[in-house]
Amino acid sequence: MITNIAQGIQAFTSNAFLVGGERTVLVDTGANFDAVSALRDRIDDLELELEAVVLTHTHPDHVGNLEAVKTAFDVDVWGYDTGVDGIDHAISDDETIQLGDHEYVALHTPGHKDDHLCFYSPDADVLFAGDLVFQNGSFGRTDLPEGDRATLVESIDRVLERIDSDLQELHTGHGPSVTNEPYGHVELAAQMARQM
């Protein structure tokens, strides 16, 4: 069960995905909205207990609510770089972690930001892409600090090599999730990133 607690929020925020199941995890916390209240409502409705926060990367729109969520739910935070405030545990490239009922492989995918991770579950056919790629071939900005277009292209290519062509769900850092042939959206992003 995957639900976006930031859906419908008008403020500048990332998506924040609650992944329910055996290990209930929040992927990114979003920013500029009351994530604690939104999360508490959703968790109570679904009778879940939040066990961890996992970060795709640490841009402010993805971690603005981090401290509030961490304090309210007394959970640890996993991310790529424990040198960043608020991250308790490092996730290494190619490490396997559990989100909900499935195991996901963490893929280090810099280019948008140095600490960027994507999470892919071959069993669930689900990819959490953060700000690497979006719907309709869009891709992460490379004009911010730590951004680099050539590195981003390499990261998208790496993800394409790992994911299966019958990917079922693509959950992105912004905009809607893609459930209609999401693999093609990732392929298109690889093409578009090379052209600009």
Question: Overview of this structure, please?
Answer:
The protein is α/β, with parallel strands linked by helices and 196 residues long. It has one domain: 4-Layer Sandwich (Metallo-beta-lactamase, Chain A). Helix content is 27%, strand content 22%. The strands form 2 sheets. A 6-stranded mixed β-sheet has the order 1-2-3-4-5-6, with no helix packed on it. Strand 9 (117-121) and strand 10 (126-130) form a beta hairpin. The mean pLDDT is 96.
Task: Please give the structural blueprint.
Layout: E1 2-4, E2 17-19, E3 25-27, H1 35-46, E4 52-54, H2 60-63, H3 66-73, E5 76-79, E6 89-90, E7 96-99, E8 102-108, E9 117-121, E10 126-130, H4 149-162, E11 169-172, H5 182-195
Parallel strand pairs: 3-4, 4-5, 5-6, 10-11
Antiparallel strand pairs: 1-2, 2-3, 7-8, 8-9, 9-10
Helix pairs in contact: 4-5
CATH class: Alpha Beta
Binned strand content: 15-25%
Helix content: 25-40%
Q: Kindly give the count of domains.
A: 1
Strand order of the largest sheet: 1-2-3-4-5-6
Do you know the CATH architecture? Answer: 4-Layer Sandwich
Give a quick set of tags describing it.
27% helix, Metallo-beta-lactamase, Chain A, 196 residues, 11 strands, five-stranded mixed sheet, 5 helices
Summarize the structure.
This protein has helices at 35-46, 60-63, 66-73, 149-162, 182-195, and strands at 2-4, 17-19, 25-27, 52-54, 76-79, 89-90, 96-99, 102-108, 117-121, 126-130, 169-172.
